[in-house]
Records
---
Amino acid sequence: MAAVGKAMAGANNKPAMIRKLLMRVLVVLVAGAILGAFVVAIVMPQLDWSASARPPAAEKRLASLVLHRWVRRNAAVQSNPLAPSPDNLKAGRAEFIEHCAICHGADGSAHTPLGADFYPPVARLERGAPGWTDGELYFIIAAGIRYTGMPGFGAHHPPADIWRMILWIRHLPRLSGQERTELRKEAAQLMEHDGRN
Ligand code: HEC
């Protein structure tokens, strides 16, 4: 009889234990929410949110690691289906000047007449983006990179346009001095034209 009584007492204690556990979880959740609200409302506005600061080395490394892993995870393994024919390069050059030069510079050097700072800084493409495969470049240009200023072009441009711009980016390291001068002039003219509209 005594054994049965003990077992019943144990069974009766179970709901009480569960209630206690749930209370503890609730307390932890509420404390977490209060701490989260404190961090967002009080701590974060004290950080530097200006675009003219330079990212510290540790932040740069961390962001680069996340970006590379994200791109590798999502980019298709493929090489450029278009050949760097004079026509394709010419079209890629025009598209790049129209859509990319305002930030990346006509020659990919990130020197632009815009006269503005980005955080993180605009990536330099004059070496032809050797760290990325064709498929990865396609993914970056089509998707864009959230919170950086790099827009996504995939929804408004047919794939062939993007592949031609990639041909042009790969060509950037081989620009002659004269080509570079012409490019900068053309990009500056385009900006003046846009400014008047
Ligand atoms: C409004 C400014 C802006 C425009 C327009 C823009 N970009 Fe970018 N782009 C950026 C910024 C800022 C970054 C750096 C993002 C980062 O650090 O993660 C970037 C990064 C990139 C990268 C990644 C390079 C690397 O090594 O990390 C590629 C490739 C690129 N842009 C291509 C293009 C192309 C092609 C176009 C035109 C179709 C274009 N971008 C238009 C601002 C711009």
---
Amino acid sequence: MSKKILIAYGTRYGATREAAEAMREALGARGSEVNVVDLKQTMPANLSGYDGIIIGSSIQAGQWMGEVKTFLIQNQQLWTAKKLAVYVSSSTAITDAASATDTYITKELDKLGITPAAARAFPGVIDLSPKSRHGWLKKTILSLIAKQQAKSSDGRLKLGEINDFRDWNAIKQFAIDFLSTL
Ligand SMILES: Cc1cc2nc3c(=O)[nH]c(=O)nc-3n(C[C@H](O)[C@H](O)[C@H](O)COP(=O)(O)O)c2cc1C
């Protein structure tokens, strides 16, 4: 039977939205009815019709996007009954996805008493190009992150470039695996 799935995300620069769109494509190709919602624009009011919900967030300075946290808290009573998968787009996940999943998802959701059916930190995008939209403060933070990670990423992180570490197959497979649990 066709499943109805909500993918609700919060993004700062678009990587988390593009992951949501890739998941929509993968789930749609398998006959699911998928709604994708940017939580900054819309807070879905009625979640009762969904068989499963996927929530995604960008990580900025160790934090989830505020609108994603609000959505989780507003519907806190629902998450014990509803099938929930959670992903984040992160730079830490480039070098250590397990630790990023633990730090940014498991520990954060523990604080809210939420145990998702699936959780994954995906390597995201680090824009170190001269054309990046980051102001000087963010550029400074990012170059610090970059310097730290360049050591452990075998030089894969390039200064002066857009570093896109997204693994589209893994992103789609995450959604497909979740679908198979519904
Ligand atoms: C100012 C800034 C701070 C960031 N801080 C973190 C961080 O603390 N931990 C992390 O894993 N990634 C961090 N990142 C990396 C982002 O999470 C990554 O670029 C992600 O793909 C962005 O997703 P978005 O395009 O949906 O906003 C940071 C990025 C920026 C620009």
